[in-house]
Amino acid sequence: MREDRSPGSDSLFYGLFLGNTWSLDPTAKLVQDNPCLTEFITSVLALPEPSPSILSFTLRLAGILAASENRFQLLQQEKLLVRLFGRDGPLNSALWEDASVRSGWVEGVHSMMHHQPALRFLCDGGGIDVIFTLQGDPSLFVASAAGQLLVHMLTLSVESEMTKPLSTKDCDWPACAQMIIKRIEDSLQSSSSSHIEQSLKLLTSLFGSCRATWTEVLWLGIAKQIESFLTEETVQAQHMLANLLLSMAWSPVFCDTEGGFWALVTSALEHLTPVQAGPLAVGLLRLYKCPQDVRIQALTVLLQPMDCILRAASQPLEYAGLLDESVSDPATVESLLSSKSSCVSLLCQTLAHLEELLSLIHLPVDLPYTSLLHSLMTILQFCNGFLSPASPLGSTISRILINSFRVQRSALDVLAALSERKGCDTLLGSLFDVLLAYLESPNTSPTVLKKTFQATSKWLVRLQELSCSNSQWQQTEKILEDVFLVLQKRLCSPCWEVRDSSLEFLTALIKCLRDQDEFRQSLLSSEVLKLTENLLEDPESYVRASAVTAVGHLAFITYFAPESPAIGNQYNKENTVAKLQEILSTDPEGFPRRAVISIFTKWLRQGCTGQLEDTERFVSRVIQTVEHDLDWEVRLGGLELVEVFCSQTICQLGLPKCPYAPVSSAVTSSIHQNESLHIFCRAKVFNFLFQSLCDCDKPVGQRACDILLGLRCNFYPVSTLKDSQGAEDSRAGRSVAWLQRTLRQGSLAQSFPTDGGNGVDFQDPESMLLALGTIDLEELHDELNKSSDHVEKSPQSLLQDILATVGTIEENEADCY
Q1: How far is 333 from 309, CA to CA, in rounded Å?
Q2: Tens of pLDDT along 461-473?
Q3: pLDDT tens track for 724-742
Q4: Staple partner for 596: which of 154, 169, 545, 584, CB 3.0–4.6 Å?
């Protein structure tokens, strides 16, 4: 590895090598028994110009070895650590310019930081200064790793070197911790914005990961300086304060304290800009232990942009807005919304935070839902130009937001989430006017249209719930009629994304509303059914797949409902089933075929395939189609269909699901058992299952084995499993014995005789019953669930695999990794 210089393989090989755990043996014996490790490090240090990747690897390897105190002392005796991590190492060489070397140095130091000798080694050698410098590294990975390392070192120093708990009056920090804290304090008091930001990031990470009481002692020493950043205009660090305060708010050390900390949070909400305060506000609103007055203030900050939108869209005093008073100067929000560069970003951030809050099952704060909905509708009307603002501010915002896809998508996401909250009933008519305007507009982009469909489907469900309770039938009927008129046009769109979204929308509606009379009547009186069926032949495979799903769900209304309407021969059940079976057998793309098998399974689950005889023929045809499909997900879907069919058949014939359950009589049980076996054999279920056991795609074989194990539990109580050695006398016994040997070789799919010689008759109930009782399915199950490295899993076998790929790395890089 040291001598290899191939450019593409270094990081791959070294990463794999370090992936093994060298800390399993904490003694020095690992290094003593494997001198090649220290020899390797020594030889790399002796190279005049080692490659950066080899040197980085060596640094990380040495750090891992030094994680044990015993091994650390051994490496120290040979002066290897000081040559790697001290001033005489890579720190002062040209190789330090390479980010991979700096990264290897930081990772190596982090790995060894598990004991006090390592801490003292680094502190005495000036390593603290190096790590603080690396916080500002141009490589974000190195800078982040350096910050994490400082947090780890500070925590290790305090928790391993302290002899008594720290208090606010007695701050006798350990030596290493004192060095780090002094550097933090100096950075916070410096005039360098970058140094201040680095220290604030470090504190954020510390308070977020460490919940020990000594963090409060540290905070009290720097709190005044942090507080001054809120008001000092010369220091541009305010944007970092929100993350710092939020990480502290989640810590029990600070959230349970009275006064000081929450007063600082309140001050931050007042002084930070709306963009800076937004993340802090939403984080506080998610916090259950937040004081009520702080929570109200956070909600006010979050809603200020929405309030400004409402006021800008209405005449003076016509609408009061969302808020009675503001936390910060309303002119600040108005200024941001009047600027093209900040308006969209502020609104998108605010909307994202609102969606985050609405996604919570239990909101710790009450939102003004009606006013919020009104504000969302106003934003959407600004974006499509359907609203004429009455104020100069409104006109400015409207010009900025026109056709803003980002704001439209964000607003529609919040609108959809709002459908699950109560209190918006009075605005339903106006809401659907806005949604329909978006659905009808040719200027609505495909992505915005998809979001509009999603929001519309959720609000239609809400509308149905309300109409059932307050008899608003006429309003519901009119809205549904308008929706289906728009849907008809969209299903004919030249844009395939629009056709696809339209079909997904239709499917979503059917899933939620198929039992509602008004919905069924509006749907069946439209042209949607015919247009949907036409899209089964769409040139785009995604659209065909969505059409299959939509047609499958439409069948629950047109064919499978208790009182299905008679609407012409072209929509009859047989033709639809035949069309879907044709897609399953002939469509060149996998997505439509997967959709078909999924729909067939859904029909079967819900008992829509007719009597048992009809279901048997249906399943048999599907099995014979999918068993040769090249798409493994289609074959897996076929197995799911078989599993449902077997379960339903056994339930219908009265066989007990549990092998220990009592039956009415042995005769009745035997009759039902024979009948179900005959059905499975005629439907070619066993043929498909046993062939799938040797499928080249492991998930297919695993599922088939699970189904066979389930069938055996139904047909054989544990105590009655056959002895395979005594079953080979009959022809069926010989064929089953051949089947078991063939399955063990994993070659059934390649040589699959079903007649003559030792071939197995998979349609013979006696043979299949014998096969279920004698074949060791548990052994097959274990074999199928073995990982690819089950033969040998060790560092040595991994290195052999690595070395085997040398010279052919371009071809095998992905497989090796």
Answers
A1: 10
A2: 998 888 766 666 7
A3: 444 555 666 677 777 777 7
A4: 584
Long-range contacts of 510-517 (CB under 8 A, 24+ apart): 510/550, 510/553, 510/554, 510/556, 510/557, 511/553, 512/457, 512/460, 512/461, 513/460, 513/461, 513/464, 514/553, 514/556, 514/557, 514/561, 516/464
Task: Determine the Cα–Cα distance for residues 106 and 448; give it in Å rounded to an integer.
Answer: 46
Name the helix (H) or strand (E) containing 708: helix 698-715
> Can you tell me the distance from the alpha carbon of 477 to that of 520, in angstroms, rounded to the nearest whole number?
11
C-alpha–C-alpha distance, residues 705 and 235, integer Å:
67
Distance from C-alpha of 455 to C-alpha of 410, rounded to nearest angstrom: 11
Are 404 and 348 spatial neighbours (Cβ–Cβ below 8 Å)?
Answer: no
Ramachandran category for residue 662: left, alpha or beta (phi over 0 → left; psi -120 to 50 → alpha): beta
Distance CA 468, CA 471 (A): 6
What is d(CA 134, CA 141) in angstroms, rounded to the nearest whole number? 10
Tell me, letter by letter, the H, E, C secondary structure of 111-133.
Answer: HHCCCHHHHHHHHHCCHHHHHHH
Nearest to residue 739, comparing CAs of 776, 714, 703?
776
Closest CA to 174 of 196, 163, 158: 158
Q: Cα separation of 693 and 682, whole Å?
A: 20
From the list 68, 62, 114, the residue with the least C-alpha distance to 85 is: 62
Q: Which of 658, 675, 771 is nearest to 714 (CA)?
A: 658
Q: Would you state the structure tokens that stand for residue 411, as one six-digit string? A: 């607003």
Give mean pLDDT, residues 100-122.
94
Q: At what angle do helices 666-682 and 612-626 cross, to 10 degrees?
A: 40
Query: Which sign does the torsion angle of CA 252, 254, 255, 257 carry?
Result: positive
Q: If you write DSSP's letter for every residue of 408-439 in order, what string do you get? A: HHHHHHHHHHHTTSSS-GGGHHHHHHHHHHHH
Other beta carbons less than 10 A from residue 715's beta carbon: 17
HEC letters along 486-544: HHHHHHCCCCHHHHHHHHHHHHHHHHHHCCCHHHHHHHHCCCHHHHHHHHHHCCCHHHH
Q: How many CB atoms lie within 10 A of CB 592?
A: 24
C-alpha to C-alpha distances, 479 to 463, 519, 612, 759, nearest whole angstrom: 9, 10, 42, 64
Angle of helix 698-715 relative to helix 777-784, nearest 10 degrees, comes to 160
By mean pLDDT, which of 202-206, 482-486, 740-744 is the weakest? 740-744
Q: Which H or E run contains 152? A: helix 140-161
The Cα–Cα gap between 549 and 561 comes to 17
Question: CA 109, 24, 100: angle at the middle one, nearest 5?
Answer: 30
Closest CA to 44 of 125, 103, 104, 99: 104
Residue 403 burial (CB count, 10 A): 13
**Residue 788: which residues within 8 A CB-CB, separation 6 or more?**
none
Rounded CA gap, 739 and 759, in Å? Answer: 8
Model confidence pLDDT, tens digit, residues 155-192: 999 988 776 776 655 568 888 999 999 999 999 998 88
> Of 147, 146, 217, 226, which is closest to residue 189 (Cα–Cα)?
226
From the number of C-beta atoms within 10 Å of its C-beta (0-12, 13-18, 19+), residue 796 rates as exposed
Among 657, 655, 548, 562, which residue's Cα sits nearest to residue 606?
Answer: 562
Angle at 446 between CA 445 and CA 449, to 5 degrees: 85
Contact 775, 733 (CB under 8 A): no
Three-class secondary structure of residue 652 per DSSP: helix
Residues 70 and 109 sit within 8 Å (Cβ to Cβ): no
DSSP string, 341-403: HHHHHHHHHHHHHHHHHHT-SS-SS---HHHHHHHHHHHHHHHHT----SSHHHHHHHHHHTT
* DSSP letter (8 states) at residue 277: H
